[in-house]
Design a protein that fits this description.
Elements (H helix, E strand, L loop, with lengths): L2 H11 L1 E4 L5 H16 L21 H5 L4 E5 L12 E6 L1 H4 L1 H7 L2 H9 L6 E8 L9 E4 L1 H4 L2 E2 L4 E6 L10 E3 L10 E5 L5 E5 L11 E3 L6 E5 L4 E3 L10 E7 L4 E2 L17
Antiparallel strand pairs: 1-12, 2-3, 3-4, 4-14, 5-13, 6-15, 7-12, 7-14, 8-11, 8-13, 9-10
C-alpha cells in the first residue's frame, strides 16, 4: 500500500492495518522482556487493579506516577476469580525507561508508518504492553484514546502491535470504523488536586456503527485515529494475546494541560 492510499484509508475509516511488518523474533523478545518485567516486580508493590470501567476506575499516586515510569497493573480480582496478580498491563513509559522497548518503539517500520500519515515532529507520549493471559484475560471497554490523551488540532495517533496472533477467541482488537468522524463524547480530566474525572462533552455515541474485529498475525500493526472507538473482549481461550501500544503526538498540536498524563522539565516528551 502506498503512503497516499494508506493515508486515504486512515482518513476515511479511522484506522489502517499493516500486516506482519514487525519481525516475529523481535515480537518474541518483546514478550520475553514483558514477562521478565512482571516476574521481577516486587510483591509488596501490588496496588489497585487497572480497569477501564468508569464506575470502578481508581486513581492514586502510583497510577499518576506511572506516566513517566514502568509500572505493572493487574486484572480486577472480581473478574478473574479472585486472583490478585494476573497482569493486565505494563505502562506507561516503557519507550523511555526500558532499553529494549525504547528501541522497539523506534523501529524503522513504526517511524515509517507515522511519517506516512503526514505527522510532523512526532512526540512519543505513552507506551504499554497489554496482556490478555490465557483462560481469563480481561476485556477493554469501548473507548477513544482522545478521551484520555487530548490534543488539537491533530489528535493523538494510536499504534497497536500484535506480539502474538490475535483472533476473536483470544480477544483481538475491535473497532467501530468511521466513528472518528463524530464528536468526542467524553474527556478524562486531571484536576488541580490530582483527582481525575470524566467530563461529558456531547451525546455522540459509536453504538450506531458496526463493529469490525481485527484478526491479525504476530507483528501486525494497527494505526488508529485518536477519536476512533475501539475495544477488546475477554480472552476465553488457552492462547495468550499480548500487544504493544504506543501513542504519538503530532508536534504541531497542543497537548492539553489537563490530561492525566503529563510531561515535566526532567521528563519531557521525546521524539523518535
Amino acid at each position: 500500500m502506498t503512503d497516499l492510499l494508506l493515508k486515504e484509508k486512515f482518513d476515511s475509516e479511522g484506522y489502517v492495518v499493516l500486516p506482519s511488518v514487525i519481525d516475529p523474533d523481535l515480537c518474541r523478545e518483546a514478550r520475553t522482556r514483558s514477562w521478565n518485567i512482571v516476574n521481577d516486580f516486587a510483591p509488596d508493590n501490588v496496588t489497585a487493579p487497572f480497569t477501564t470501567d468508569p464506575n470502578k476506575r481508581y486513581v492514586d499516586r502510583y497510577f499518576l506516577d506511572s506516566a513517566r515510569a514502568i509500572s505493572v497493573f493487574y486484572e480486577d480480582p472480581d473478574i478473574v476469580g479472585g486472583e490478585i496478580r494476573r497482569p493486565n498491563k505494563i505502562g506507561h513509559a516503557l519507550h523511555e525507561r526500558d532499553d529494549f522497548f525504547s528501541r522497539f518503539a523506534r523501529l524503522p517500520a513504526i517511524q515509517g508508518a507515522v511519517a506516512s500519515l503526514g505527522i510532523q515532529s512526532p512526540k512519543l507520549i505513552q507506551s504499554m504492553v497489554v496482556f490478555k493471559t490465557a483462560d481469563g484475560g480481561g476485556s477493554v471497554n469501548w473507548h477513544r484514546d482522545a478521551t484520555f490523551l487530548y490534543a488539537e488540532p491533530y489528535p493523538i495517533l494510536g499504534i497497536w502491535i500484535a506480539l502474538e496472533p490475535a483472533a476473536l477467541e483470544n480477544g483481538c482488537l475491535q473497532v467501530y470504523p468511521r466513528s472518528h468522524l463524530g464528536e468526542l463524547d467524553t474527556r478524562y480530566i486531571r484536576q488541580s488536586d490530582d483527582s481525575c474525572l470524566f467530563k461529558k462533552l456531547s451525546d455522540s455515541s459509536p453504538s450506531s456503527h458496526q463493529a469490525s474485529a481485527i484478526e491479525v498475525d504476530t507483528g501486525s500493526m494497527v494505526l488508529m485515529h485518536g477519536h476512533l472507538a475501539h475495544a477488546s473482549m475477554p480472552n476465553r481461550s488457552s492462547r495468550s494475546r499480548l500487544a504493544f501500544t504506543l501513542h504519538v503526538l503530532d508536534g504541531r498540536s497542543h497537548y492539553a494541560s489537563d490530561n492525566w498524563l503529563r510531561s515535566s522539565a526532567d521528563a519531557p516528551f521525546n521524539g523518535f
